[in-house]
Every structure is written in structure tokens, then in C-alpha cells.
Amino acid sequence: MNDLLDRLRELLLDTGYTIDGVRERLGDVAATALSREETVPALRATGQGDPLGTLIRLWWLGAPVEARGAPAGLPLEELAAAGLVTVEGGRVASTVHLQPWETGGYLVSDRKVRPGDPALRPDHVVGAGGASANLAQLASRRPVGRALDLGTGCGVQVLHLNGRAEEITATDVNPRALELARLSWALSGITGVEARRGSMFDPVEGERFDLVVSNPPFVISPAGRFTYRESGLSADDFCRDLVRRAPGHLAPGGTCHLLANWLHVDGEDWRDRVGGWLAGTGCDGWAVQRDVQDPAEYVELWLRDAAEQGTPRYRELYDDWLGWFESENVTGIGFGWITLHDSGSLDPVVRVEEYGLPVELPVGGYVDEVLGAITTAHRLTDAQLLGARLAVAEGVLEERTGPPGAEDPARIVLRQTGGLRRSTRVGTVEAALAGVCDGDYPLAPLLDAIAELIGEDPDDLRAKAPAVLRPLIAEGFFHISTG
Ligand SMILES: C[S@@+](CC[C@H](N)C(=O)[O-])C[C@H]1O[C@@H](n2cnc3c(N)ncnc32)[C@H](O)[C@@H]1O
């Protein structure tokens, strides 16, 4: 089998069946239409019978092709024997979705369902998509020893971990997922992945990892109909349990990144709900709500995802789901990132925030710094802060706005040009500090100088400054210079 997959990979690469090759061939219009699940423009762009067009039709669009139009060297008989295609009456049809991925490898999953297709099988293995890319972008880029991908599906996170982790373990409750994931890894030339079947952390009982990533079955519904997205546990309990159990599988200094959904329940602040999951884990935690949907939007999204719009059961499924949300007093469903870090501190910190704006990618390139800033701000005493040499972070800009001709600005904003690209409104003291803090001098004498300039009592300013500066440190506008 591995020999077949090696030859297939060579042929896919030689034919230009790569992310860039497909993108170029489809063009913007067909690619955008595909993101709306409309295949007609893509079928038109690939109907010339040439090798690349034929491969895109067969494996990306899931359309049957003429066997005689298949690229020379495509081992159809062997692929049919391996169950990857069927050949009948001179026509070849794929049994799987085989897509190039941004890491340069390939992913094998079940065929995408589109409106009008037969219903999904309950053990459907979903292909990589936006959420997969989201988690891959979030995960720390730090090289690690042992990494775990929990709920590997088609194996996409392993493609991202490969080369960064010395050992990779991937788990899934669905045996079919592991079967297809193994194909993905072999086709991507990745060897040595330890694949284990089982639920949640059961397959790695008693083991610890330096990095844990999971794009879990986070969808919240009244019935666990599809393993690829629903755990079968009630409400958002699966994500809660993942958060609570993850620290028990982190090695000292280890990090865990999860995608999650959480409920907004009438009368409860969602921050308390998610913060409650993180509190008591013994880890530093950072949860970010990237989006929130109302119950109807959410139900529509996931019924569409399983191509159930337009089916006879659509209204009934929609109604049941919405009715269940109502009975649980659900007002919305949050989507976001959760990161846990086992820093070994006896005083762990949890930050829960809403932040939906575009960020610099990959977040994994600076996520360790984000966590570091949150913990530094939390752990510094006022006295330590006043004695510390503060530096304004690289790329922070100051924006001053106000009525034309006014002597003083009405509003001063500090804006990050990189990283999370946060912006925050500040007062004159913080703005003045941003202008002079280059890490050379401790904070206290700088505050004294500013107090003199603006005519304020230096002792008052020293007393007030830590409370104002701590959030700016936590959010990465200032950092403590160690140089
Ligand atoms: C949303 S898919 C994620 C697939 C892939 N890791 C990605 O990033 O695209 C969730 C995966 O979790 C698996 N899963 C569902 N229930 C699980 C459980 N109780 N324990 C472990 N994995 C589970 C599903 O089979 C599915 O492959």
C-alpha cells in the first residue's frame, strides 16, 4: 500500500495537483463559488480532459471521469483494489476526497456532501476546513518532544505537527477516521505517527505531552448524530471536560490548544461559564471568543454543513434543535480558542476575552508571548512593576484624534500593527510613557518626570500607575525589558 501511495504522491505532484495548482486552475470565481458549495463554475473550469483538470474533478469535486482521460501512470486498478476509486463501464469515481493541503501534503477524508447528495453516514470523516486551519494557526510553533492530536479525523493537525514534534500520537473515537488519517500521512510522506482509537483522553491514560491540540466534536445539539462534529455528551460538556482533563496530560511546561463552542445561557455571563472550566485546572489559561451566533444561525450553519437544507426532514430537525436550545435557555453559541499552559505556577491566571478582529497569522508564532504577557501582568507586584524597566512593544503606533486646531487630542489610541492587532484608548500618562519607555530606565523615575511635566503629585501617580499599566502589559502594549 505504501508503495502505491508513494507513487500516487509523485504523480499528484508531477500533475500539479497542489494547493497552488488547484487555485490557479480554478481561478477566483470558481474557487469562491466552491466555498458556497456551488460546483458548476469549477466543473466548467476543469472539463477539458487534461490530467490536472481530471484529478481536480475526480478527487476535489467528486465527479466521475472517463478512465481513458485519467493521467498516464495513474494506477487505476491498484487504486480500485485499495478502495480509493471504483472503475465501471470506463468511468472512474472516487470513494474519498483527496485534497492537497497547505503544508505541501495530502489529506484523505470522506467525500464532501453537497445539497442533493445522499445523507451522511454517522461515521463520516470530515475533510480539513476552516476550523482545522484555525487550530493549526493557533498552535505554538515551539519545537516539542511529544505531541498529541486528539480527534485527528483525516489527520490534518499531524501534517502541521510533523517536523515540530519529535513524537506524535493521534487519537480518534472513529476507527474509519484513523484508517483515512493513515492514508493522509502515508500520502504526505509522514511516518512514525502513533494512532490510537478511543474517546477523549482514554487512549493516552497516564501519559503526558508537551503539546496537545484538538479540534474536537464541539457542535452543540440535542442529539449526537454525526461523530465528526458531535460527541454525544450534553450541551458543551465535551469541551468543558477536555479543558478539565487536559492538564492531567500536560508535561511540565506543556501547552494545550483547543477549539471550542460554549453556550450563552440566559442570566449567566459566558465568561463565567468558560472561566469556570479553566479555573482550578492549575494551568494558566487564555480563552478567546472569536465569534458568537444566535441559535437559529447556528442550527442553519450545521444543517447546511451536513447538506440537510432542502431535505424532507429539514424543518423538523431545525425545529427540534431550536426547541432544545429554547428549553435550555440558550441565547447564543460562542466559538473560540482555548489555550492552557502548565507553567508550574502556584498562582495560575485565567484570561477570558472576546476578540473578533483579524489577527496576524499564524497566532502560533507569538501565542507563547501572548500567554507570557498575561502571566507577567498578573504576577508582578506593584513594587516590582515600579522597579521594572518597561519597554513599549515593537510595532505599537500612537493615534491622536480631536477637533481640528485643538491643542490637546480628544482621544489617544495605542494600536498594535502585528500580533493580535489590539488597540486601546489611553490617557496622557500612558501615552507619555509609550513615548519614553525604551527599556533603559525603571518605571518609577519615568513616572516622576511625567508627574512634574503634567503637574501631578509623583506619589499619586506611582500609586495609580500599576492598575493602569497592568492591563496594557497583559495585552502586549508594553513588556518588561530584560536586556
Ligand atoms: C471536527 S473533527 C476534527 C478533525 C481534525 N482534527 C481537524 O482538525 O479538522 C473532530 C474529530 O473528533 C473525533 N471525535 C468525536 N468524538 C470523539 C471522542 N469522544 N473522542 C475522541 N475523538 C472524537 C471525530 O471522529 C472527528 O474526527
TrEMBL record:
SUPFAM superfamilies tied to this protein: S-adenosyl-L-methionine-dependent methyltransferases
Pfam families on file: DUF7059, MTS
Keyword hit for Cell cycle: no
Domain Methyltransferase small stretches: 135-261
GO biological-process terms attached to the record: methylation
Keyword Methyltransferase appears in the UniProt entry: yes
Superkingdom per UniProt: Bacteria
CDD domains tied to this protein: AdoMet_MTases (cd02440)
Every DUF7059 domain range: 15-93
UniProt keyword annotations, A-Z: Methyltransferase, S-adenosyl-L-methionine, Transferase
GO molecular function: methyltransferase activity
Protein family per UniProt: Belongs to the eukaryotic/archaeal PrmC-related family.
PANTHER family in the cross-refs: METHYLTRANSFERASE N6AMT1
Annotated protein name in UniProt: Methyltransferase
